[in-house]
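Consider the following assembly input.
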Amino acid sequence: MRADEILRALTASLGEKLRSYELRPREVGVRRKWTVEEIWAEVEREAIPQAVATLKALGPLHISVISGHDAGETIELLYHLAVGFGTEGGEVMVNLRTFLPKTDPTVPSICAILPGAETTEREKIEFLGVDFPGIPCRDHVFLPDDLPVHPWRRDEPELQEFLHRMVEWEKGHERTESQGS
Amino acid sequence: MSERNPKDPENPVLPGVEEEREVTLGGPERGLAEVFEVPIGPIHPALKEPIRLTFRVRGERIVGVQIRTGFAHRGIEFMGMRQGRNLVQVLYLSERICGICSVSHPIAFTQAVERAAGIEVPPRAQYIRVIISELERIHSHLLWAGVAAHELGFDTLLHLTWRVREKVLDILEELSGNRINYAIPIFGGVRRDITPEQYPKVWEAIRYYRGLLEQLLDAFLRDPTVEARTRGVGVLERKEAEGLCAVGPTARASGLRKDVRQDRPYLAYSDFQVRAITPKDYGLTPVGDVYDKIVVRLLEVGQSLDIIEKALENMPEGEITSFPKIPALLAHLKKAEGEGLGWHEAPRGEVIHYVRLAAGDESLLVWKVKAPTYSNLLSWYPMFEDQEIADIPIIAACIDPCICCMDRVYIVRDGKEEAWTKEGLLRLSWEKTRRLQR
């Protein structure tokens, strides 16, 4: 799989919804040089499932993870996908960036196209408060189900206070447990 | 956490998980129609953290599983991003994400930062990173093989495998000073060189393992009891592995040639032309069961020996770091701005680190870590489907070796909880082995 083929397919399929893209090749190897290509593209949030479906049609698709970041007015999500595993140096990393307004932090789920994305989408629900309409399960992966804050949001006024309360609660909880036994 | 029920459209079952079979009431199958819940945990049978697995069983068969993680979520990314640590301190933190593959996370993390900050790594340092990570793969795979033998009730094999594993830990200690947490990678290179005086010891270890590998393959793969306990158990089909984005030996055992060292070479890996190993390389048709996972891991020990051998033969001369002084490195990192992605094939599969640096800030703006088990979590659903209770330990272990941290098992029967211990569940597994041997 070559990066320019992937870019052609993405441009044809997404049109205007592919806002920008960049190719970042990296030289690897000491005695046997090799160029590994990475695509970094920004797409509109509605176009994420279409972009993933386009990539899936090109070759075996893998999702590594979705990175998330509180960028002030918006929440930035970065889908780290890889197309074309199975051959030497044949895989291209495709990083799709999208911005969600904080007033409506939703982006369509890609689980119907790529079931392996479920864990990472669920993780973004609990850590950033993003919603993925269409996700088969919304349960928390790491944090308690009743946690009132999203720890990676930078606009959580109660976060520090909450962390403090949690530490206190854990101390109290441990005491109760040891008394019980 | 809600149960995945195939009949509930709002909470569908994952692809590849068969619908619950209808069992006719009455007659000899009467007892089988009752479904019991078997909660296991919170414990860590397979992940780096305690985990709770709640099985729904009908008779001896598992008909559904519910997985809950997060009992020991340490918030490492939060600590790295939001608590004012500088990058060298975060590197220390990244080394402590996993105790078994403690060089894999720093390797991915340093690459991500080097990419973001435009730092070059000298060739010799790249080779040293490769050697340490391959030594780590040998120790991790042998650790796993020993644990798998223990789950099956083969303690002789456990002791043999772990005795053999000591050699690679000795070498890692010789090269880094530690049996785990080697603290080898640093941004721009490595912290310790492999000196010519150390070469003979590494060569001796390679010869030692070459001589033993055939015996280990023989002990694990040609043993009728191991075969009876692992063949057809915990199957992950190729299509499921691809759809659920499984990684590492879990994916390769299902026949996917998926290995980051091959697919997206990094560091000096393109020099060694790594090829992903599947059971086909042992002359088998990949099934994706526990047996295939043993095959892949043991063959990968041989592959790691090949890589270390080539790396030692062709070790480039020169510097081991582009920043010998830490203050200069920290000053460079403080000025740097950008984002970067680093990856590594850890013993259990793909590790990914994403970082973003802001100029003028010593700490990270964004840090995302993806460990291999994170990708393999969903694979457990199809693997446990329609398996026996006695096979729970080996199926949980076929992803990762920490099954013996299993602490509490309860069987809920008519509202009454029946407590089981880890020993009880293991005994059940061992009894099955003895039964099969008779």
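Confidence is low (pLDDT under 50) at residues 5-9, 11-31, 44-48, 401-417 of chain B. Ask yourself how this observation constrains the way the partners meet.
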